[in-house]
Fold this sequence. Notes:
The structure holds 2 protein chains of 2 kinds.
Chain A: H1 2-28, H2 41-70, H3 78-100, H4 103-120, H5 137-167, H6 175-202, E1 207-212, E2 218-223, E3 229-230, E4 235-236, E5 246-247, H7 254-278, H8 282-286, H9 295-328, H10 337-359, H11 363-386
Parallel strand pairs in A: 3-5
Antiparallel strand pairs in A: 1-2, 1-4
Helix pairs in contact in A: 1-2, 1-4, 2-3, 3-4, 3-5, 4-5, 5-9, 5-11, 6-7, 9-10, 9-11, 10-11
Chain B: E1 4-5, E2 11-12, H1 28-32, H2 46-49, H3 54-63, H4 65-81, H5 97-114, H6 124-154, H7 161-165, E3 169-173, H8 178-191, E4 195-199, E5 202-207, H9 214-231, E6 238-246, E7 250-252, E8 260-271, H10 280-286, E9 291-303, E10 315-324, E11 329-331, E12 334-355, E13 361-368, E14 375-379, E15 382-390, E16 393-395, E17 401-403, E18 412-419, E19 422-432, E20 435-438, E21 445-465, H11 468-487, E22 491-498, E23 501-508, H12 512-526, E24 532-533, H13 534-542
Antiparallel strand pairs in B: 1-2, 3-23, 3-24, 4-5, 5-22, 6-21, 7-8, 8-9, 9-10, 11-12, 12-13, 12-21, 14-15, 15-18, 16-17, 18-19, 19-20, 22-23
Helix pairs in contact in B: 3-6, 4-6, 6-9, 9-11
The complex binds protoporphyrin IX containing FE.
Protoporphyrin IX containing FE sits between chains B (65, 68, 71-72, 133, 136-137, 140, 144, 215, 218-219, 222, 482, 485-486) and A (347, 350, 353-354, 357-358).
Amino acid sequence: MVEISSNLLLVAFFLYLIATICFAISVTGRKWRDKQGDVTGNRLGMVGYMVTAIGFIFNVGYFITRWLAAGHVPVSNMFEYTTFLGMALTFAFLILYGIYKTNVLGMFTLPIVMLIIAFASVFPTEVEPLIPALQSNWLKIHVTTTALGQGILSIGFAAGLIYLVRTLDFNKRDKKVFWLEFIMYCLVSLVSFILIRYVFGLFQYQAVFQYVNEAGEEAEMVYHMPAVLAPHQGTPVSSGVMEPLLSMPVWLRSDDANTVLWSLGTGVLVYAVLRLLLRKPLGGAVQPLLKNINPDTVDEVSYRAIAIGFPVFTLGGLIFAMIWAQIAWTRFWGWDPKEVWALITFLFYAAYLHLRLSRGWHGEPSAWLCVIGFVIIMFNLIFVNLVIAGLHSYA
Amino acid sequence: MEKIKCECGHFNPYGTHLCESCGKPLDDKDKNASMVDMRYEGVARRSQTYNKTIIDKIWNFFSSVKVGIGIIVLTLIASSVGTIFPQEMYIPSNVNPAEHYENEYGIAGQIYYTLGFHNLYGSWWYMALIAGLGISLIIASLDRVVPLYRALKMQKVSRNEGFLKRQRMFGIHEPDAPEQTVEDTKWFLSKKRYKVREENGSLLAEKNRFARWGPYINHVGLIIFLTGCVLRFFPGMYVDELVWVREGETEAIPGTDREYYIENEEFFVELYDENDETFAPALQRAGGPQVQTYQTNAVLYQSEGTGTVGTEPELTEVKSDEIQVNHPLRFDNFALYQMDYKLNELNVMSLSMNDRASGEKIGTIDIDLFDPQGEYDLGNGYRVVIDSYFPNFEFNEDGEPSTVSDIPDNPAFIFQMFSPEHPEEGEYSFVGIQRNEDVFGENDYEMSFEGVETKDVTALTVRKDLTLPFLIAGGSIFMIGLIQGSYWSHRRIWLRRFGGEIWTAGHTNKHWASLKKDFVALSRETGLEVPEDKQAKKAMKEKEPNGRDDSNG
Lengths: 395, 553
Ligand code: HEM
């Protein structure tokens, strides 16, 4: 059953890829007008929408079969939660496309969905049993609603990104262009991370180190990528592996730091190659494809996404969370890092709504805020789960 | 201040920008603009009108959204600082916090501790921020909602020319049959679930006005929620206690004034089956057993009358329940939660008295480690007296035997053994776990260890929280207001006839694309052209126009 489930996810992934291509052609393929001058790209957009919808059905198929296999709703570890977030993003896209019929949204959202699903697959995919604190119906309700809210809010990010790529002046080399390129670089690094993990995984690379852990005891650490950063007082046990360049202090998880270094380094490389090939900032290279996009529409899509997503997120991430915390942990609020970061997300989007409504932050400032909001969501997903230990920690 | 009379005859409060009734721009700024500021319908708001007394100044400060956003952002930043290192409540309770932060996190930890960030969310300034948020919410909402309510109630159907002309969406048409067009519009917009009002040839079609109250309702919800959080600090609203109960025992529940008692019939921990087909790979990777259930089978009793301390209370059973994580036992505003446990706590210890020379067993005693008797009579002149009992034995700083606590984790005894040979003085023997010593040299008798009985102990958190109803009410009202304001938008369409001309104007508080869609549908039905969107026009002029249609955007 778990295997069927994985295959369904794979099918969904490739359907999203096809849909991306459809949307990309429909946005950029202006040349393909028929004799009457009608744009055929629009029809391809509809095809993209249908393919996305079918992909989503497969995605739901993955979810249901995994649920059946595990006997509990599959949102209880990093792989499951992150995959569900990707699914929620697709769902949110289906809704917003229904309202605004913007093909360019598909062209940007679906690659993000694919990235998220690929990122999820980096984590262990075994079906895990639930610890007592997670055995509750509120697990389903709280986590799915939160992820759905985050998915909808992320559409705001996709639209904000489109707005920025569409409107920034890439001939100037100012701060704005720098930060947009920084976002591009982060996306490139994420792709690099997934690819190198996959490649080294294919060769089943392993390097074992003997080291001294925080408790001052001898321990072993297994690297799945060549070690540039060695653990504290580490010596290689496996033969024929790369000599590390630097030794890390004891409080740092050196294998994780090593992975991050690899990803960022490969990211620099890939980004540099792309810059050389394109001879422009990456945003500037994409911009001409978007010249027919109406920025105001994209701006409204991003606002609409946040107006729809904010209540859903509040309900799932704060209200349902409090109800469950009251039942499982005896208090509805405990200032656990994950709780605090949900509150921060909430406050941030509240500030966004007020800035927009009362201070007229439309267009560009609003788009930057959408980007920052997404960074906060990702921070909560990755950093708070994996680095700051707390009650919610998956690591 | 005196009221301002508009040419339509309506008296407006001092400070009004757009006549509440006909919408005519009243001050020069609006008269000269191509678009009027429709936020809050151009009503007179206290904060925009008065700025003399100190009260005015405070009012104006807190009613400013700029200030409100400032408070939100400060709260946000402060909250994130609190997650850099764990808060004090999450560090081990047996360490000195000052040392802990320094040892674990070095100089940064020391600074963190010195600045009081280890207790950030309970600090006075964090509370002050939250209080500021509450005050700001109340004042900003009052400043706007009252006049807004008036303006939306007063609005006339037939609006002033200057008002219509200065709407963001405005257009003039000359249809062939104006009368018919107005009729068609009326019919069509009614069908689209607009509320259409008519007044000598003019139309006002309005939809979802209730959405305008969304923000105020959600703010009210927030205020109730915050009030609930403040109530926590009043005595009696909140109980947080812990009770340990051994299997088979009954304890008074703290916080209930000895009205309720809880019995632990059984406590157990259940592990996942390591050979389970589904979970085996994950369990193997985790490399250890995983707990499936912590459970206390408990019985709740109520005592008849308030039993005074010392006397046995008379208990009647109220209910029995299986307490698990995620399944507390509830009664009367209280809930008992599975919080902690201890397996195999020593409970009864059996020892025998033996004749060392012959090895003959004289008799066995069973000592209840929580309630040892002073003397155990073995008959025939043999007795064992407990001279000293150390439930959790250690040698103290002076090298004397002593006890760490009352919990028998490491019990030790000094026995006085009486026998026909030693009827007066007895013989002393020191017995502990894995130690058995004569205290004063050679003894004829000895105590030897026979066995122990253990029991599992459960720890239950006792919680009463009378603020919950406020939080539930506040949270619900907040959600209702939030959804109301977010999922609907207040749209209005005005139509006014001037001879053969029909003027149309439209306004919405958000999501203009949806209003435009309505206009497009209206146009298809009645032939009325879609009014021009001034803002979009302005935007297109600023960004280089490319002359193509944007249907693909
Ligand atoms: C965390 C706290 C807050 C939350 C969650 C919140 C939530 C909201 C929401 C959802 C809206 C509607 C926005 C939209 O429809 O786009 C709104 C509007 C508004 N909020 Fe808040 N708010 C908060 C704090 C404040 C504070 C401190 C102020 C004080 C200045 C304030 C003043 C306003 C005003 C003036 C409006 C506009 C109302 C209108 O134009 O109809 N809010 N708020």
